[in-house]
Write a structure and sequence with these properties.
two-stranded parallel ribbon, Rossmann fold, about 240 residues
C-alpha cells in the first residue's frame, strides 16, 4: 500500500520512516502513545491532536503501519476530511508474519538488555515496539490472545468510521481499480506493486545489530569486543535471522 500510494503521487509515512531519524521519530511516537493511551492526567499532559500530529508527520499526506494504526480514532478526529483505508488480511497469515518478526524482536533478551546501552536506535526502537504491543495485546503474545486483539481492532474501526469514508482493501486480492475509485485517482497502467516486508524488517534489524556491535567495540576495546561480537552474532543474531527468513 505504501508503494501504491507513492505511485499515485502521495507522500506516505510508513513505520519504516522512523529509521531515517530514529531518535526524533521513535521518541515522539513513544510520547504520543504515553499521552494518548497511558495518560492519567490529560489536563497536565495533553493528548496528541492535530497540532502534535502535524509536528510529527506534517510533511506527509498519508500515514500507515504501526504505531500510526493504533491512533486511528485520534487521527480520524484530528483530520476529519481524511479518507481511511482499512487493509484486511487473513488473521492466520498476519499472525504467522508478525510472530516471525516483531513479536520475536520484542521478546529477544539481547535487545531487551541493549535498549539501555543505545539511546539513539535500539533503545527508542525497542521501547516504541514494546509500547505498541502493550496497547494492542497487553504484551501477551499467546496466539489466541493476539488473534482476538487483531479481530477486535478491525471491528472497532468498522463500527466507528462511516462507510463513505472507509475503504476495506483486501491484501493480495484487491488492486488499483478499488483503491483509485475510492481516492478519485486515475488507474496506473502497471501491475499492483509487491513488497517483501519480512526482508525489509530484516534490514532494519541488521542496522540495529550493527549499531549495537559498534557500541560494544567502543566500550570494551577491539580485542575483547570482537570475541563478544562474534558470540552475539553466532548465538543470538543467527536465531533472529532464522526467525525472519
Amino acid at each position: 500500500m505504501t508503494i501504491a500510494l507513492r505511485k499515485l503521487g502521495y507522500n506516505p509515512y510508513h513505520g519504516s520512516e522512523c529509521f531515517k531519524n530514529p531518535p526524533r521519530d521513535f521518541n515522539l511516537w513513544i510520547e504520543a502513545m504515553e499521552c494518548n493511551f497511558f495518560n492519567n492526567n490529560p489536563d497536565k499532559k495533553p493528548r496528541y491532536n492535530t497540532e502534535e500530529f502535524d509536528r510529527l508527520v506534517g510533511s506527509y499526506d498519508a500515514i500507515l503501519d504501526v504505531p500510526a494504526c493504533l491512533f486511528w480514532e485520534d487521527l480520524a478526529k484530528a483530520y476529519p476530511d481524511a479518507k481511511i483505508i482499512l487493509t484486511t488480511r487473513d488473521v492466520d497469515s498476519w499472525y504467522e508474519s508478525a510472530n516471525a518478526t516483531v513479536f520475536k524482536f520484542v521478546q529477544m533478551p539481547f535487545f531487551r538488555m541493549w535498549q539501555y546501552m543505545d539511546s539513539k536506535l535500539v533503545g527508542p526502537l525497542f521501547r516504541k515496539s514494546e509500547l505498541v504491543w502493550k496497547i494492542f495485546c497487553a504484551n501477551n503474545y499467546n496466539e489466541a490472545v493476539v488473534k482476538k486483539a487483531y479481530i477486535d481492532h478491525y471491528d472497532r474501526i468498522r463500527a466507528a468510521i462511516p462507510s463513505d469514508r472507509l475503504l476495506e482493501f483486501e491484501t493480495g486480492k484487491d488492486g488499483w481499480k478499488k483503491l483509485c475509485e475510492f481516492l478519485e485517482e486515475p488507474i496506473p497502467e502497471e501491475p499492483w506493486p509487491k513488497a517483501y516486508p519480512t526482508a525489509e524488517f530484516q534490514n532494519h534489524m541488521d542496522l540495529a545489530m550493527d549499531g549495537a556491535i559498534r557500541t560494544i567495540l567502543q566500550f570494551t576495546g577491539l580485542g575483547l569486543a570482537v570475541g563478544i561480537g562474534a558470540f552475539l552474532l553466532q548465538n543470538n543474531w543467527s536465531i533472529m535471522r532464522h526467525w525472519t527468513s
